[in-house]
């Protein structure tokens, strides 16, 4: 879903039909934060950092 959103945003910006870049950036940041939280949880299972708190 992350790659599809990134591609769709890039295509719409390139075509000049963008509805904005703020909302896509929020979505992208939430995806990357969620992946970071999942990675930290896999490495350090007893960490208090959760996937949701990173997103």
Task: Please give a structural write-up.
It is found in: Membrane. InterPro entries: Cl-channel_core, ClC. This protein has helices spanning 2-15, 22-43, 51-54. The mean pLDDT is 81. It is 73% helix and 0% strand. It is mainly alpha-helical and 55 residues long. The two termini are 15 Å apart. It contains three helices and no strands. It has one domain (2-54).
In percent, how helical is the residue content? over 70%
Please state the CA-atom Rg, rounded to the nearest Å.
Answer: 14 Å
Shape: elongated
Total of domains: 1
Q: Could you give the distance between the termini?
A: 15 Å
Order of helices and strands: HHH
What composes the largest sheet?
A: none
Average pLDDT across residues?
81
Please state the structural category: mainly alpha
Q: In total, how many beta strands? A: 0
Q: Note the total helix count.
A: 3
Strand content: under 5%
Q: What low-confidence regions span 5 or more consecutive residues with pLDDT below 50? A: none
